[in-house]
């Protein structure tokens, strides 16, 4: 299973071996999660808002997940944007 995930991440050239290994280490077996929302919550990237009565608060990421996973995803996204590999 880890070998398949490693091959998948190797297909994205902008994600290096260290970042890929860190994501696998932090996320574990991604196939255990049924939806992308579960992985998003694991990383702490899910949205929350503080609302009360008529007041509707603004939405922010919860940051309740794994901080290292968020950091690795941020660096991976920066590398993809920097290298210009977006479709």
TrEMBL record:
Q: Name one GO molecular function term.
A: transposase activity
- List, alphabetically, the Pfam families matched: Transposase_20
Transposase IS116/IS110/IS902 C-terminal domain location is 9-82
Q: Where are the transmembrane segments?
A: none
Question: What's an example GO BP annotation here?
Answer: DNA transposition
Q: Which domain of life is it from?
A: Bacteria
This protein is called what?
A: Mobile element protein
Q: Which organism is it from?
A: Candidatus Jettenia ecosi
